[in-house]
Amino acid sequence: MKYGALPAGVLLAALAAPATGLADGRHVLWTVDGENNTVYLLGSLHVLRPKDGSLPAAADDAYADAEQLVMEIDMDEALADPADLVQAMQAQAMLPEGQSLKVLLGADHARVAERARSAGFDLELLDRFAPWFVAVTLMQLELENRGFSAELGVEQTLTRRAVADHKPISGLETAAQQFAIFGGLSLEQQKRMLLMTLDETAELDAEIDKLLAAWRGGDIESLASTLSAEYERFPELYGPLTENRNRSWVTRLVDLLDDDDDYLVVVGALHLVGRNSVIELLEQRGYEVVQR
Question: Are 201 and 138 in contact (CB under 8 A)?
Fold first, then answer.
């Protein structure tokens, strides 16, 4: 499993948004001006394919102007010490002693196992792992089978550039906090998440095309509507996954706006659209947020 941003077991969190130009020439990029600086907010696609190309010029310009980068987690640190990430994941991903995935899934085990085989892994090897981790693994492999890679994603692309340019990178939260969102779900909720992921992978190609077309066509309202529908289906996940984190992040962003350095903040673009998004919460605090 590759890390770098929250590894959600649902398509909308994996395909948050590509950093492509919108129909009217704008991008998945916003700016907020502080007293002495500018904070850029870039919507990220955590995984990309080779054919998806590079970042748009507007994002390159924001990177060039920023003295520091901020991501969901500190990618520089995460890539330098993957053992810590594995340990943080295992603390949340293992089932309680004496429990097994096969027993937990019951009659649903056979169809999950079949989908796992088609994606390229043996479900029996994950029998001690929690359903949320199986959901993440399944979605990741389905995306990889279609050519998507975290190595090509926005976070890792910008991290490599920042390391080469000696630009500081910090994180809005830790990997342990991210994994705890899923580990904090009840086992029944995790099972529901896994079964929802099973449904999503069955229609993955159409969903990918729809989501990418919405962004490439500049149809933010359509994406926000899709996110809202997903939230209504599973509020136990989407509350902690999006809204709670957005509120926490905005407090940090307000601190950045009191600094003198310019910052490029890179987060999954699902956090920048819809209700209680980072954009909306900043506007509620009186900031003018401008899409570029």
Answer: yes
